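Consider a concrete sample entry:
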Amino acid sequence: MNLEIIRDIFQIVFYATASTVACIGLWKWREELKGKVEYEAAKQALAKAYSVRDQIRMIQSAIVFPSEWAGYESAEYETERQRKVNESFFAYSQRFQKLQDKVSELYPAMVEAEAVFGDEAREKLDELIAMTRRLWAAIVVHHQGLDQGRQNHQVAYRKFFNIINGINEFETPDMGTDEEPVDDDNFKRDLDAAMQEIKEYFSPMLGRNHPRL
């Protein structure tokens, strides 16, 4: 075997090896890039979802202070009861606007999650957004009941009061067998379930796709 043939063989081996290494490197780079994209999308989805959940809790748990309805301008025809109801509704509307701001921040993360992971990712986050619509409906119906003088006389309105005040069967002490069971229309149960599904869906992606430093 002469030197020219040996040289050709070495060149073939060299180029074949170099091509294999390049392909492996490209594949590894693509996998790392994909992992980073998935990690960031999952992290943003989780963080924004927690932010929405926390703002829901802020609406439910905090005492309403006079400063929250300070911007309300009462009308001359309002009765004293109507003024108090309208002030309360104004205060809760201000709180809900902050929640809407958090939902607006969640939306881009939801679109990105759908693009990266598919429809199921968006559906998980949509369930949380649906809970904000239920909360707003409870705020509206509760204050309508107050305005019409029904809140203290109809059991059907009590659940709306419970929703916006965070009163539920899990956090309310047992008042005795003579008391009616707490009814919040399963709001806390459904909110917890929505958050649990979001965590179970996105959390594994954080560990699996954590980018290397």
